[in-house]
């Protein structure tokens, strides 16, 4: 399944991870801790988060490239909204097969 990942430098990684997971927990069976989170957006779409001391690592996976682009945009857009007090810069995704 095609995947894409992004590393977003921030000292607030754990806080953003928890906010994102809590936001989506109303619609999806989210799994979360202070250091990691998984959001299953559907049977074949998933996003995982990992909080490091200086960055939030995000990985999305879905079977088709167009869906991957949509999921990247949804996750990045939500992160930017939650991090409105902090300039995170551009979120750059790297794709892997």
UniProtKB/TrEMBL annotation:
Pfam families: DUF2218 (PF09981). This is DUF2218 domain-containing protein.
């Amino acid at each position: 399944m095609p995947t894409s990942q992004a590393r977003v430098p921030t000292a607030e990684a754990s806080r953003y991870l928890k906010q994102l997971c809590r936001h989506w927990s109303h619609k999806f069976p989210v799994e979360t801790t202070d250091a990691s989170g998984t959001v299953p957006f559907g049977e074949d779409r998933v996003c995982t988060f990992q909080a490091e001391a200086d960055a939030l690592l995000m990985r999305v996976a879905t079977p088709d490239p167009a869906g991957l682009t949509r999921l990247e945009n949804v996750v990045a857009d939500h992160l930017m909204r939650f991090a409105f007090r902090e300039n995170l810069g551009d979120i750059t995704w790297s794709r892997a097969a």
